[in-house]
Records
---
Amino acid sequence: MDVYKLLQHSNSILVSGHVRPDGDCIGSCLATYTIIKERYPEKRVEIYLEPILDSMKTLKNANEIKNDIDLNFQWDLFISLDCGDIERLGKLAPVYKKARHTLNIDHHISNNNFGEYNVVELNASSTCEIVYDLFGDENISLEVAEMLYIGILHDTGNLRHSSTTPKTLITVAKIFAKGIKFSQIIDEMFLTKTFEQTKLIGIALNKAKRVLDDKVIYSEITTNDLKETFASVKDTRVIIDNLRVVKGIEVAIFIYELPDGEKKVSLRSNELVDVCSICQQFGGGGHVRASGCTLSGTAEEIVDKLVPLIKAQL
Ligand SMILES: [Mn+2]
């Protein structure tokens, strides 16, 4: 489709993505917004998203993202990105329904073509990959290339997941040709840790123990560990993947203490165990390979509750 024809006929354009936006959603929305705003400075162009990832806040135009918007305004064109259905737009769903024209750009298999115009490509690794071609190589600036690269990295696990296709790499090649600092971006977005996080990972790895024929690994961070390292609960997020990649491990369990004394328990599995079904038995949930729940007791007591359920699946 000719996206520019649609844009030319619209004087007010709103760009938005799904609730709790991930990297692909933020990257594709920011890129679309930036391209349109620079090409049509005379038009009213706005971008709305729920709070974005800290790591993406320094991108160009990220400071123009609105968290609040007039829900009564009727837009000439509403562009939704990375959004499988209209309800995933959250409080903007009624604004979408009211817009004069709508464009739905997405790659989710569940997308039900809810827009007036739909650019839904199920084989695309990410919405960012679609955005690159839709707006055309000649209209992608260095800054926009950077946004799209970050989005692609987020949805493909740094080009490692099976969603990465030859076509993805061709798009990435074009992005590299723009001159982005690709190794610096990967470092800053995915590899850099704060000193506090590094110390905290050290403590967690040091405490790690294995059970169930060394197929399960677990570790715990206490409130005291956080105090000693000047780290915050947010910093514990990076720990579980360091446990999951230990050789021979099928399930990693990471436990941290909540302020009320209860324990937040995260589980990751590599291949065989559906950790979601396990967490659901304790009132939690998530995905097959990554889930969580809240339990009480010592780390050992918690692990004793989980191990028989893991064993039953092995
Ligand atoms: Mn996506």
---
Amino acid sequence: MEPVNNTPIYKMLKEYYEKGFLPFHMPGHILGRGLCEELKLAGSLDITEVPGSDCLHEPRGVIKEAQERAALCFGADYSLFLVNGSTSGIHAMIQAAVKPGGKLILGRDCHISALNALAQINGKPVFVLPDVDEKHQIPLGVTADSLEIVLKENPDAQAVLITRPGYYGTATQLRNISKLAKAYNMPLLVDEAHGAHFRFHEDLPEPAITQGADLCVQSLHKTLPTLTQTAILHGNSKSLIDRRIIERTVSMVQTTSPSYLLMASIDIARSIMENKGRELYEKLKHNISDFLIKLDKNTCIKRIKCDNENFEIDFSRIVLSFKSLGISGFEVEEILRSRFGIVAEMADLNHIVLIATPFHNSMDFDKLLMALKLISDEYRTVKAKAKLPRWPQQLPERIVPLREALFENVEEIPFINALDRVSGVFITPYPPGIPLVAPGEIINKEVIDYVDILLRENCPVHGIHDQKIKVLKARL
Ligand SMILES: Cc1ncc(COP(=O)(O)O)c(C=O)c1O
């Protein structure tokens, strides 16, 4: 896909290469000469800080211009490019908002980077349980009502972090959450890693940064046409967090040798989306609805719908249910890959999750449909499926601070003997993919029973390998 126009970083890189300089500078492959054939072209644009290329940590030239263009395009007051994914942006937001040892209110559905960031500053997580769709066992996200209860109990917390959307494409309604955070005078940080495309079609959920979030990170590489690792942190000039502070923490978590290839790919994607984003997503919406009509007509496979009014849906995230067939989501994922060469983003017991982008065409959807039709015909006989237990509504008790728990010595024991031990790991069953237990929390009877049922159903439970788990050694 050609960039449309106005791509200052990309333009600078091309001009530098075309000047035919003889480089006696980093990187060591000297404009691709030392790279293998496949990488040579990319290498020709892979320079570092040379005259004219600007500095990510104190941008004054092309990076500054590209970031300003991005802010306008994504609806932010300012935007900062990230070359180590949303992971680095989450670290930067938390360091900016929470003082060492302070409390952060966050959804239990948060990404691991949020807890790692908290551990680094010896911060205290205060969790809000996300809503789980009972019928499909899918995590939906944190609602304003659940957040308010935790806010009331923790007025001394220093910030709120919300993850939206989740992996299954449900995005919590943010307006009331934003009002609540303001009422409690807490900055609202949003992990919108999966929602970088939200700005480009009115039928997608509204982006967090235009709904009052103080800061928000988006992984461009997850849904937009950019290279892996690219992300953006968007800021609000009326934020409780001063721009100077977040710029400082972003600088602390980024390399001093940022890849211009990564930054150029952000610049190019912004240009494409700014000029054609709506048109591209309209076409995708059309392709998806066409695909779904045919899927409904030709198969027993259903796209799951979320009718909970607290959540909006990302139409580009296709979650298919195989509940009515004699096959699990894991098996479908495997068959699609090995027999049809189609690779899904993820699977759980009853579902597969597909990320559709404007760069999929109608032929891709036809290929997917053909494969699903064959699977549907083959596995039409319904095997009785186990009913999964209800997601525990009580969080396990924490007895060791997160940071200590992550660094303490552990021992591996059979999971069935882990009752009342302190976990050294995250125990995360799929579904619903939310940590049931975090390091430093007690493994109680409810956890043992819940995991036992999932393991018997062959559901993967991250943190448990060969029926064994790592628990803190010194805490019996
Ligand atoms: C909800 C969520 N937040 C943050 C991240 C981290 O994003 P990145 O891979 O861009 O660092 C992920 C990655 O999968 C994620 O799913």
